[in-house]
Amino acid sequence: MRGMIVGRFQPFHKGHLSVIRYILNEVDDLIVIIAASQQSHQPKNPFTAGERYDMIHNSLIEELKDITRVIIIPANDLNDNGLWVAHITRLVPKFDIVYTNNPHTRYLFEQAGKKVRTPPLFERDEYSAEHVRDLMKKGKKEWQELLPKAVISVLANLDGLARIKAINSSDK
Predict the structure, then answer these.
(1) Looking at the 3D structure of the chain, how many domains does it have?
(2) Most CB within 10 Å of its CB: which of 12, 28, 30, 103?
(3) Rounded to whole angstroms, how far apart are CA atoms 106 and 115?
(4) Is 172 contained in some domain?
Protein backbone atom coordinates (compact mmCIF):
# COMPACT_ATOMS: atom_id res chain seq x y z
CA MET A 1 0.00 0.00 0.00
CA ARG A 2 1.27 3.48 -0.85
CA GLY A 3 0.41 6.50 1.27
CA MET A 4 0.75 10.21 0.60
CA ILE A 5 1.16 13.19 2.90
CA VAL A 6 0.84 16.82 1.80
CA GLY A 7 2.50 19.67 3.67
CA ARG A 8 4.30 22.96 3.20
CA PHE A 9 7.06 22.00 5.68
CA GLN A 10 8.01 25.64 6.38
CA PRO A 11 10.29 24.39 7.98
CA PHE A 12 10.33 20.60 8.38
CA HIS A 13 10.26 19.92 12.14
CA LYS A 14 10.33 16.98 14.56
CA GLY A 15 6.54 16.73 14.50
CA HIS A 16 6.65 16.18 10.72
CA LEU A 17 9.37 13.58 11.23
CA SER A 18 7.27 11.76 13.85
CA VAL A 19 4.25 11.70 11.52
CA ILE A 20 6.31 10.30 8.66
CA ARG A 21 7.71 7.59 10.94
CA TYR A 22 4.16 6.75 12.05
CA ILE A 23 2.89 6.54 8.48
CA LEU A 24 5.83 4.38 7.35
CA ASN A 25 4.72 1.81 9.94
CA GLU A 26 1.38 1.56 8.12
CA VAL A 27 2.34 1.70 4.44
CA ASP A 28 4.88 0.15 2.09
CA ASP A 29 5.83 3.45 0.42
CA LEU A 30 5.16 7.10 1.18
CA ILE A 31 4.86 10.07 -1.15
CA VAL A 32 5.74 13.35 0.57
CA ILE A 33 4.26 16.32 -1.30
CA ILE A 34 5.97 19.68 -0.77
CA ALA A 35 2.93 21.89 -1.28
CA ALA A 36 3.02 25.50 -2.43
CA SER A 37 6.40 24.78 -3.97
CA GLN A 38 6.31 28.00 -5.99
CA GLN A 39 6.11 30.12 -2.84
CA SER A 40 9.14 31.34 -0.92
CA HIS A 41 10.64 34.38 0.78
CA GLN A 42 7.29 35.20 2.43
CA PRO A 43 6.47 35.26 6.17
CA LYS A 44 4.35 32.07 5.98
CA ASN A 45 6.44 30.48 3.23
CA PRO A 46 10.04 31.52 3.81
CA PHE A 47 11.85 28.61 2.16
CA THR A 48 12.06 27.44 -1.45
CA ALA A 49 10.91 24.02 -2.60
CA GLY A 50 14.54 22.97 -3.06
CA GLU A 51 15.44 24.06 0.46
CA ARG A 52 12.46 22.20 1.88
CA TYR A 53 13.39 19.15 -0.18
CA ASP A 54 16.87 19.23 1.36
CA MET A 55 15.38 19.63 4.86
CA ILE A 56 13.13 16.59 4.40
CA HIS A 57 15.58 14.41 2.48
CA ASN A 58 18.53 15.09 4.78
CA SER A 59 16.41 14.59 7.92
CA LEU A 60 15.05 11.28 6.68
CA ILE A 61 18.53 10.06 5.71
CA GLU A 62 19.85 11.11 9.13
CA GLU A 63 16.99 9.55 11.09
CA LEU A 64 15.88 6.55 9.01
CA LYS A 65 19.08 5.82 7.06
CA ASP A 66 17.20 3.95 4.29
CA ILE A 67 14.68 6.16 2.51
CA THR A 68 14.03 3.95 -0.51
CA ARG A 69 10.37 3.79 0.58
CA VAL A 70 9.96 7.59 0.42
CA ILE A 71 9.27 9.69 -2.66
CA ILE A 72 9.53 13.49 -2.22
CA ILE A 73 7.73 15.58 -4.85
CA PRO A 74 7.38 19.38 -4.97
CA ALA A 75 3.95 20.57 -6.17
CA ASN A 76 2.86 24.06 -7.13
CA ASP A 77 -0.41 25.23 -5.65
CA LEU A 78 -3.41 26.04 -7.77
CA ASN A 79 -5.71 28.76 -6.59
CA ASP A 80 -8.65 26.59 -7.57
CA ASN A 81 -9.75 24.10 -4.93
CA GLY A 82 -12.00 22.32 -7.43
CA LEU A 83 -8.97 21.30 -9.48
CA TRP A 84 -6.38 20.91 -6.72
CA VAL A 85 -6.80 17.16 -6.02
CA ALA A 86 -6.67 16.34 -9.73
CA HIS A 87 -3.56 18.51 -10.05
CA ILE A 88 -1.80 16.71 -7.17
CA THR A 89 -2.94 13.30 -8.39
CA ARG A 90 -1.50 13.83 -11.86
CA LEU A 91 1.92 14.73 -10.40
CA VAL A 92 2.42 11.58 -8.33
CA PRO A 93 2.54 7.81 -8.72
CA LYS A 94 -0.60 5.88 -7.79
CA PHE A 95 -1.42 6.06 -4.07
CA ASP A 96 -3.97 4.30 -1.90
CA ILE A 97 -4.43 6.64 1.06
CA VAL A 98 -3.85 10.27 1.98
CA TYR A 99 -2.68 11.24 5.46
CA THR A 100 -3.58 14.71 6.65
CA ASN A 101 -4.55 16.67 9.75
CA ASN A 102 -5.80 19.58 7.65
CA PRO A 103 -9.64 19.55 7.53
CA HIS A 104 -9.72 21.32 4.16
CA THR A 105 -7.27 18.87 2.57
CA ARG A 106 -9.26 15.98 4.08
CA TYR A 107 -12.50 17.35 2.63
CA LEU A 108 -11.05 17.87 -0.87
CA PHE A 109 -9.56 14.37 -1.09
CA GLU A 110 -12.68 12.73 0.35
CA GLN A 111 -14.85 14.63 -2.16
CA ALA A 112 -12.63 13.16 -4.89
CA GLY A 113 -13.29 9.66 -3.53
CA LYS A 114 -9.87 9.15 -1.96
CA LYS A 115 -9.33 7.28 1.29
CA VAL A 116 -8.06 9.68 3.99
CA ARG A 117 -6.61 8.94 7.40
CA THR A 118 -5.69 11.39 10.17
CA PRO A 119 -2.32 10.63 11.76
CA PRO A 120 -1.75 11.55 15.41
CA LEU A 121 -0.38 14.99 16.20
CA PHE A 122 2.86 14.97 18.12
CA GLU A 123 3.03 17.82 20.67
CA ARG A 124 1.19 20.12 18.26
CA ASP A 125 1.67 23.30 20.30
CA GLU A 126 5.44 22.93 20.16
CA TYR A 127 5.80 21.17 16.82
CA SER A 128 4.17 23.71 14.58
CA ALA A 129 6.03 25.39 11.72
CA GLU A 130 4.29 28.65 12.60
CA HIS A 131 5.60 28.38 16.17
CA VAL A 132 9.13 27.60 14.91
CA ARG A 133 9.06 30.59 12.54
CA ASP A 134 7.79 32.81 15.36
CA LEU A 135 10.63 31.74 17.66
CA MET A 136 13.13 32.35 14.85
CA LYS A 137 11.64 35.77 14.11
CA LYS A 138 11.96 36.73 17.78
CA GLY A 139 15.54 35.47 17.92
CA LYS A 140 14.80 32.83 20.57
CA LYS A 141 17.18 29.87 20.47
CA GLU A 142 14.46 27.34 21.45
CA TRP A 143 13.55 26.89 17.77
CA GLN A 144 16.60 24.66 17.30
CA GLU A 145 15.22 22.10 19.77
CA LEU A 146 12.16 21.63 17.57
CA LEU A 147 14.03 20.75 14.38
CA PRO A 148 16.01 17.71 13.27
CA LYS A 149 19.77 18.37 13.18
CA ALA A 150 19.76 18.08 9.39
CA VAL A 151 17.26 20.97 9.13
CA ILE A 152 19.39 23.14 11.41
CA SER A 153 22.32 22.44 9.08
CA VAL A 154 20.31 23.37 5.97
CA LEU A 155 19.13 26.58 7.65
CA ALA A 156 22.68 27.46 8.71
CA ASN A 157 23.96 27.00 5.14
CA LEU A 158 21.34 29.34 3.68
CA ASP A 159 21.31 31.77 6.62
CA GLY A 160 17.65 30.96 7.19
CA LEU A 161 17.47 32.89 10.45
CA ALA A 162 18.48 36.10 8.66
CA ARG A 163 15.89 35.41 5.96
CA ILE A 164 13.11 34.90 8.54
CA LYS A 165 14.02 38.16 10.25
CA ALA A 166 14.31 40.09 6.97
CA ILE A 167 10.99 38.98 5.47
CA ASN A 168 9.22 39.74 8.75
CA SER A 169 10.77 43.16 9.25
CA SER A 170 9.18 46.49 8.48
CA ASP A 171 10.28 50.08 8.01
CA LYS A 172 8.41 51.15 11.15
Answers:
(1) 1
(2) 12
(3) 9
(4) no
Amino acid at 147: L
Q: Note whether residue 106 is domain-resident.
A: yes
Structural domain includes residue 147: yes
Is residue 61 in some structural domain? Answer: yes
Helix axes 49-64, 149-158, angle to 10 degrees: 150
Q: What is the CA radius of gyration of the chain?
A: 16
Q: 77, 34 in Cβ contact below 8 A?
A: no
CB neighbours of residue 64 within 10 Å: 15
As averages over each run of 10 residues, the pLDDT of the chain (172 residues) reads 96 96 97 95 96 98 94 92 91 96 94 94 82 91 94 95 90 70
Distance from C-alpha of 17 to C-alpha of 13, rounded to nearest angstrom: 6
Q: Which domain holds residue 115?
A: 2-167
CA nearest to 29, candidates 121, 91, 95, 87: 95
The CATH number for 98's domain is 3.40.50.620
